[in-house]
Design brief:
The chain is mainly beta and about 675 residues long. The protein has 11 helices and 46 strands. The structure holds sulfanyl-(tricuprio-$l^{4}-sulfanyl)copper and dinuclear copper ion.
Length: about 675
């Protein structure tokens, strides 16, 4: 009945949109069609709100009635928040914020013993890290398509990589890069997620070493790290991972080859000038010093062979980590350079694996290389020269497929199933749709390697993402433009403005792209996002068993069932095994002596979906979130005497306020 009613409203709204279009096109007569819902005239609302036909169409295309689900999920980096945002598309509703590099109180992330261990496993040299600059989320893939199992993301600020399990949307592992304090070309995955790629960024001596900037060319390094992912365990295996030493250019984004180019990795670089700054000493500033040459180098890496060399023991240990030296890589023929126009940023491999699209912010073209030609140039030694470090440089003209003029400041590219590519134009504040060539030409019948449509965005787009747009089977349909500036799009909230995610309909490939929705992001600068078909994600409703430790995704030795709760003192240590259920904790009273060490395990013994409980003890600075079945532990020293009413921090039931107890610390 209700469903019928909602359908009727939707149909009515669509009808209104159609009428508007009809009128706008000058085809209609003047008679007014009245459409009433519950006594309210829809036309009056549209007029009152000053909506255009485009607005009404956009509203109809994005509105989700209550209880309906989105078709896609957008996994967006949370930027400086060190988190991951999960957003429904097309509704653009925020569904979840996943705590990753930053403690997150609601989720209890970084407060329990279990989550603290994960969060701080990758601290640097004794320094607790409590934030991250997240850039590139990467969904795990099987045969080149997202499989909905895992998500990875990097922290550019400290060169870390995190693993998130999409069964419960929680972070399971954080790893610190042992060689560098700076990464950017990560995370990207190979088509079967054997490797998680973490490319470096700013050249530096190996982590922990000092070298004067005068010795930049010799002592500073670039790197790319290949983390081996153990899908069964859902963890990176550091022992089976390795890195490649690179010249101290500033390496940038990477992308993994697929299909024909599987087993290869492509990585941009800039500052091949080896500028070291020092404007205060009369040197050119970085932005000029690093932009002098017309060409930088696209790094072409034969990952498959690199992995074989690593297996064969050709790596050396640096900071305890396996590294293929630059010398070895050159000698073994696993590293090549290709000239790429001026300070490039994005590198994206086409769905068929044939083309590598590079865009440089200082060049109005997308430069497209053919993998076939690259392979041919390598096999037939079409090498023009070597860089100062001895890396062979392939002949630019021999490997170039096309240059497509797009507009000002092209950065990143994604794809659709019809042979179109979509490139962000940062300086122009626009998104360009252009036709790929080769086999793709048959798909859309368009002139190959040509711009076909452009839409302006608001403003300064960095990355963009299309549905499954870097898969081997992109869906197209929707595009989200991740805009850095919002300027006049939202109500003024002070000098720090939100970022702006703009949803764009790209489904009509015969016509034009249409802007649908602006979503403000007020917690950081999300650099990249990936969009996956929502039904690919098979998340749990509740944890599989009572007493579950999400940190290990297995039963916790500290879980209890109802009736097993207890308190045990051993010397100065008091250990509590507590249960939580609507609407009480057992035990409700815990008394210790000042100075005792307290180890407090809590198990949510519920099996009902959404029956989450929280737990906090005032003054002791923690909050836990216990989802049905979950067990978590807090450890602290009872160094403050007094009486501490602990309570459940989730409004779980009618008697939620009564879900409390007393923690007494005797002097
Ligand atoms: Cu901001 Cu990929 Cu880190 Cu481009 S990145 S915009
Ligand atoms: Cu449990 Cu509120």
């Amino acid at each position: 009945m209700i469903k019928k009613h909602l359908t009727k409203i939707l149909v009515t709204v669509i009808a209104v949109a159609a009428i508007f279009f009809f009128k706008a096109c000058g085809g209609g007569g003047e008679e007014k069609v009245s459409l009433n819902v519950g006594g309210e005239d829809i036309n009056a609302v549209i007029e009152d709100r000053d909506l255009t036909p485009e607005d009404v169409l956009a509203a109809v295309k994005t509105f989700l009635p209550t209880g309906k689900y989105d078709e896609y999920l957008l996994f967006a980096s949370g930027g400086h928040s060190g988190q991951v945002l999960v957003i429904g598309v097309p509704s653009m509703r925020l569904l979840k914020v996943i705590g990753v590099f930053t403690p997150e109180p609601w989720q209890g992330w970084g407060f329990s013993k279990e989550t603290k261990e994960i969060l701080h496993a990758a601290d640097y040299d004794g320094q607790e890290l409590t934030w991250g600059d997240t850039h590139h989320p990467a969904l795990s893939e099987t045969d080149g398509d997202y499989d909905g199992q895992f998500l990875f993301i990097n922290d550019k600020a400290n060169a870390r990589v995190a693993v998130i399990d999409l069964r419960d949307f929680e972070t399971k592992q954080i790893i610190k890069n042992p060689l560098s304090l700076s990464d950017h070309g990560g995370t990207m995955v190979t088509p079967n997620t054997e490797w998680i790629i973490e490319g470096g960024q700013y050249g530096m001596p190996w982590s922990g070493e000092y070298a004067s900037l005068d010795d930049y060319n010799e002592k500073y390094k670039g790197m790319v790290t290949f983390w081996k992912f153990d899908r069964e365990k859902g963890r990176i295996n550091t022992e089976e991972s390795f890195a490649m030493e690179l010249p101290p250019y500033w390496q940038d984004i990477t992308d993994a080859g697929k299909l024909v180019s599987e087993g290869w990795v492509f990585q941009n670089s800039f500052n091949t000038e080896l500028a070291t700054g020092g404007i205060e000493e009369g040197n050119p500033p970085f932005e000029a010093g690093a932009s002098q040459r017309d060409m930088d180098y696209l790094h072409v890496i034969h990952l498959k062979k690199a992995a074989e060399l690593f297996k064969a023991g050709k790596t050396v240990k640096i900071n305890g980590f396996n590294v293929l030296t630059l010398e070895t890589s050159i000698k073994e023929g696993i590293l090549y350079f290709i000239p790429e126009p001026k300070s490039p940023h994005g590198v994206d491999v086409s769905p068929d694996g044939n083309y590598i699209v590079v865009s440089g912010k200082l060049d109005p073209h997308a430069t497209v290389y053919s993998f076939k030609k690259i392979k041919d140039a390598i096999d037939n030694g079409k090498i023009k020269e070597k860089d100062p470090y001895g890396v062979p440089i392939l002949d630019y003209d021999a490997v170039l497929e096309a240059q497509v003029e797009l507009g000002l400041g092209p950065l990143h590219t994604q794809f659709d199933p019809d042979g179109y590519a979509y490139t962000s134009l940062f300086l122009e504040s626009a998104v360009a749709r252009w036709a790929l060539g080769g086999e793709w030409t048959k798909k859309n019948g368009k002139e190959p390697w040509k711009l076909v449509d452009k839409i302006s965005i608001h403003y300064n787009v960095g990355h963009l993402v299309t549905a499954e747009g870097d898969n081997i089977h992109p869906d197209g349909k929707y595009l989200v433009s991740l805009n850095k500036w919002a300027i006049d799009r939202f109500t003024n909230v002070g000098p720090l403005l939100p970022q702006n995610f703009q949803l764009i309909d790209i489904g009509n490939t015969d016509g034009q792209m249409q802007r649908l929705y602006d979503m403000p992001i007020g917690i950081g600068e999300p650099h990249y996002a990936q969009m996956i078909k929502a039904d690919k994600i098979k998340a749990w409703d509740v944890y599989p068993e009572i007493g579950w430790d999400p940190g290990t995704q297995s039963k916790s030795p500290y879980g209890v069932l109802a009736g097993e709760e207890r308190v045990k003192r051993t010397g100065n240590t008091v250990e509590v095994w507590m249960s939580a259920v609507r609407s009480h904790y057992t035990p409700e009273r815990v008394e210790v002596r000042k100075g005792d060490k307290v180890i407090w395990h809590i198990t949510n013994v519920e099996r009902a979906k959404d029956a989450t409980h929280g737990f906090t003890v005032p003054g002791y600075n923690f909050n836990l979130s216990l989802e049905p079945g979950e067990t978590q532990t807090v450890e602290f020293v009872a160094d403050k005497q007094g009486v501490f009413p602990f309570y459940c921090t989730e409004f779980c039931s009618a008697l939620h306020l009564e879900m409390a107890g007393y923690f007494l610390v005797k002097p």
